Amino acid sequence: MMRYADPSVCPDCRTQLPADPAACPVCALPLRGPLAASLFRTLTHADGLLTELRASQVTVPATRAEAGPAGPTPPPASDDPAASPSGSPTVARRTGVRGASVASILLGLGALCLLVAAVIFLAVAWSWLGVGGRTTVLVGLTLTTGGVATWLGARGLRVAAESLMVVSLGLLTLDVAGADNAGWLGDLTSFGFASALGATLLAASVALLFVRRPLVAPQVVAVLGLAALAGGVLGNSTHDQVVTTVAVLGYAGLAGLGRLRRLAVLPWAALVGAAGWWLALLALALDDATGDRAGQTTAFSLLLQGHRLGLLVAAALLLIPLLFTRSTPLRQVGLGACASLVTVTVGLPGPDDGATRSAVLVLVLLVLWSGALAAVPESWRRPTLAPVAVCAVPVAAVAAALMGVAVDNASDVGAPFSRAVGVHLHDVAPPVDPSLLVPCVLGLLLAIAVAVPAPARRAWPAAAGVMVLAGIGTLALHPVPLWTVTTALGLTALALAGDALRRSDPLGSWEAAAGSVLAGTAALAALPSAVLTSTSLAVLVLGAAAVAWRGRFPESAVGAWLVLPPATAGLIWSVSEVAGLGEAYRATPVLLVLAAMAVLRPRAEVELTAGLAGLLAAVTSVGAASDPVTSLAFHLTLAGALVTTSALVNPSRRSLGWVGGALLAAATWVRFVEIGVHSPEAYTLPSAVALLLVGLRRLSVDPSTPTLRALAPGLVLATTPSLLWVIGDDAVSLRAALLGLGCLGLVMLGVRLRWNAPLLVGSSVGALLVLRELAPYAGHTPQWVLIGFAGTVLTLVGITWERRMLELRHAASYLDRLR
Known about the structure:
By secondary structure, this protein is mainly alpha-helical. The chain has 30 helices and no strands. Helices cover about 75% and strands about 0% of the residues. The N and C termini lie far apart (about 110 Å).
């Protein structure tokens, strides 16, 4: 009887299977894993059902008679623990070590034992065996293990085959070592032995790759053998670059063989080996290309003498991967890398090449590659972009270095306001010829123009501005008058601002910002001369004002309003320096002009920068004044008055009144300190009066405002400092009497006008004042007075209890009418 579950045959094609197979050798059906186990259990369950069905053939009629018309009998329950109650098989959890793992462990240990035994054999038996015996034993073992491994591999026993193949190749290594020890290979050095061993292993591994089912071990050993062969040859050769080149080509051949034989490991292992030897070739070629040799130390002479041939060969070897892939992106990467390395080879400076000559060479390469990028079709643009980027990096570095020297030279003329108008820049010696700044910038702009999409090429005004800036930088690299540099920057800033005003696209905002930056740079460079600083700041103020009032984009207007107040403050300060006005008096016109701008244009950006600029100017003037305290009080008063004016004029800036009041109060306090006033009322009453006036104004505008919100801050500030002074050490004084009268007046006013604030503040402060007056006499009062006082209070409370109930209703009605 045929069984469904037969582990010796394939469940699909019914082919006889080897021992513990991973897959069917004919139809490649996987025979391991949870799904295969579930299939085998299902087939086993089917065999059990078939057996039960055959056993029940005799009793089928009786069973049907007994069953009646109710329907078929349900299938019998299975005793298979892997089957579910419904009869369908379930996947059992695998426990223990897999069979394949056991085989791998055993075979691995076996291979290790065989190799150890071979080594011991060579160490012990080599002396008493003859040449023939030794040769017969080693060659026989090597061929036997190799043949058995190949035979096992052809029959699907991959683990055993791999293990024995490792043993065979290890024995082959011992064969070569024994032959060298016997002198059969001649007097070899260590490098010669490495070459012989590598060649032997490479030849044997490559031969084993042509069997029916190649193993993994020969693929790995082939790569290692080629490495040993190339390393040995490299150690005995003086042509290092030739050896490394041949090694890379050899690995390329192994990779091609792996693809031809459809091997999984060899192509990738060969790729790793080729990359390592290619890097070695690159290092050797770079050392040869930059070496210092007599009469051959320039880039051109090194190229003519062939000392850069290695770099060109390394670049050509980068094209080999293109033979193994059809991917367009990978091909483009290879072509771009090859072109980049060729560019580096041509542009790499020699030891005697100066910085200027090297920069010129790289700039020429950048222009040539940019032209090629503009001429090639779209499919070749990506490979061409790589050498363009390689050339652009050093060109940009040269331009940045020259601009850095120019900026440093322009900012190192002297201290602020310490030089005349005709002051000259220093004579500097940059590492590269200053005349290369403009060509380098032009080359970079050309590369950007051909590399970026077409819409970005419309930004020709920005490119023109960059070129002008490069020209100004070139000017700053020479000992020219400072005014030439600042004038050029100012005119460029005005041109950008003018073009920004006529534009209706977002580029106008960028031009306005660039113009502000250039004008600010001109002002910073002109600081050594007050006249030049005034001129540069006037240009900045003019451009910012034009953009602020006539700009078409809100972003540019915001930026202009941010720049305008500090630029105006700097202009007034520098003009005051030219006019001979002392620093102690310069903050006054600055504060007046900035306040006018903030009042006329109440914008957050204007107020912010105007406040910061005004604060800086005031601090500088106070520090330069002969009497700093008086100067501080004056500037605080002026600032407070100006801020309060803005709060009164602009309804949206009412909250600035608090800031103005605080500044005025601070000015008063500073003045009181100066004249020696120490009474608290001198400091607090002016601020309290200001707060009360603001509160009364609020009540007149909105009668529904609670008096606690409108008047309580002013009343507390007017009474609390005096109360604290009285509580401290001035209990019996004119201040205490006046404070008491004031509290009485507040209580009466609150009752009369039905206002909460004066009533509560006056009663609270007055009560504390009365208790303070009572405190010195409390300790000397007789006890009977206290007892009598307590009795009186209790009596009065008892008598008036019922009357209080009526008064409570009247008091509630009265409190409801309070505001």
